[in-house]
Amino acid sequence: MKARLKWVEGVCFMGETGSGHAVVMDGAPEGGGRNLGPRPMELVLLGTAGCTSYDVITILKKARQDVRDCWVEIESERAGEDPKVFTKIHFHFVVVGHGVKPESVERAIHLSAEKYCSASIMLAKTAQITHDFEIREED
Fold first, then answer.
1. Known InterPro entries for this protein (predicted)?
2. What angle in degrees, to the nearest 10, is found between the helix axes of 102-111 and 40-62?
């Protein structure tokens, strides 16, 4: 996997992934930025949520669960001193569908956290990671 990052100005950077997608990262105005894009650590959280959500949806689909929508809400805490690593991360999954079994969702989240999601397994080296979920029946 490769990526490229180019400094634009101030604390603004343009990243390009190996697959050819671009993203702007910037800091807050009080830190010298212009708030033109997300902070790098916000992207770490979003990337991790994407990684684990991909796993959860894939596992639920293989289990023949009728999932119509899914999102994950993330809350995190970081260390107060440098390096300001994540110390706590909580993932709250909301799964919407028809007749989705709680045990299937629990299993999918567990498999992602313990076996498949490289990003969350890596972050677990510094952060306490917790998960919960709710299932909403689609109208």
1. KH_dom-like_a/b, OsmC/Ohr_fam, OsmC/Ohrsf
2. 130
**12-17 β-sheet, strand order:** 3-9, 12-17, 22-25
pLDDT tens-digit profile of 64-113? 999 999 999 999 999 999 999 999 999 999 999 999 999 999 999 999 99
- Are 34 and 25 a contacting pair, CB within 8 Å? no
The CA distance from 129 to 112, in Å, is: 12
Residues 6+ apart with CB under 8 A from 10: 26, 27, 32, 33, 34
CATH code for the part of the protein at 40-137: 3.30.300.20
Q: What's the CATH class of domain 1-38?
A: mainly beta
- For 22, other C-beta atoms within 10 Å of its C-beta total 10
Which segments of the chain does DSSP mark as H helices, in order?
40-62, 102-111, 118-123
Comparing CA positions, the residue from 114, 129, 134 lying closest to residue 59 is 114
Distance CA 76, CA 126 (A): 12
Q: Where in the chain is CATH 3.30.300.20?
A: 40-137
